Amino acid sequence: MPRPSVREQIVDAAFEQFHRHGYNACGVKLITDSAGVPKGSFYNHFDSKEALALVVMDRYGETRHLDELANTKVAPLTRLRNHFEALAKDIVEYGYERGCVYGNFSNEAADHIPAIREGVAAAFDFWAEAVEKAIREAQADRSLTSTQDPETLSRFLINAWEGAIVGERAAKSGESFAAFFTLAFEVVLR
């Protein structure tokens, strides 16, 4: 198997470090040390830590189980539940030590770094559109009787999910996720 490129080693290390420690706690040196490459090689591939963060956000988006939301062979409400269950499983598997990169970057850097704010906003928009589409399908097939605007429901679910992640990272108990699933799927999406 071919050895990964230095650029890919840096992206892989940054993905891990940003996800585990957040944006502000990760300097270029930590990332390059984790990648096992010289610090100077970073600047051969990226203009800045912000530029690397945008690449990491794109890669993170590829791991968010959005393809499951588009699988029309599965009922829309089942797809939605499966989507959030897969996200929960990812967090639980890492002992609640990792949150959502979008949420982490939003809290840490969006107020100070316009490129990150724009990247986070675009990522949340893309995610919300995928959730909204499944909600529209559930309303169309009448498995969801709520007439609430699908865009509003989508944003609410994502915001509630992000809050549940924060609760889980603090408590590490499963209670915030349980509350999310109860209210989201037994009350909001009835």
Tell me what you see in this structure:
By secondary structure, this protein is mainly alpha-helical. The chain has two domains: about 5-60, Orthogonal Bundle (Arc Repressor Mutant, subunit A), CATH 1.10.10.60; about 65-190, Tetracycline Repressor, domain 2. It has ten helices and no strands. Helix 1 packs across helix 2. The longest helix is centred in the last third of the chain and has 27 residues, at about 115-140. The radius of gyration is 18 Å and the shape is elongated. It starts with 5 loop residues before the first helix and ends with a helix. The relative contact order is 0.11. The model has no long low-confidence stretch (mean pLDDT about 95).
In short:
The protein is mainly α. It folds into two domains: 6-58, Orthogonal Bundle (Arc Repressor Mutant, subunit A), CATH 1.10.10.60; 64-188, Tetracycline Repressor, domain 2.
List keywords for this structure.
0% strand, Tetracycline Repressor, domain 2, mainly alpha, 2 domains, single chain, elongated, Arc Repressor Mutant, subunit A, 190 residues
Q: Would you identify the CATH architecture of the largest domain?
A: Orthogonal Bundle
| Global structural class | mainly alpha
Mean pLDDT across residues: 95
Cα shape: elongated
Kindly provide the radius of gyration, computed on alpha-carbon positions and rounded to a whole number of angstroms. Answer: 18 Å
Mind telling me the CATH class of the largest domain?
Mainly Alpha
Largest sheet: none
Q: Which fold name corresponds to the CATH topology of the largest domain?
A: Tetracycline Repressor, domain 2
Poorly predicted runs are none
Oligomer: single chain
CATH superfamily annotation of the largest domain: Tetracycline Repressor, domain 2
Distance between the termini: 49 Å
Structure summary, number of beta strands: 0
Query: What is the chain-wise order of helices and strands?
Result: HHHHHHHHHH
Strand content: under 5%
Q: Give the helix level as a range of percent.
A: over 70%
Tally of distinct domains: 2
**Number of helical segments with 4 or more residues:** 10
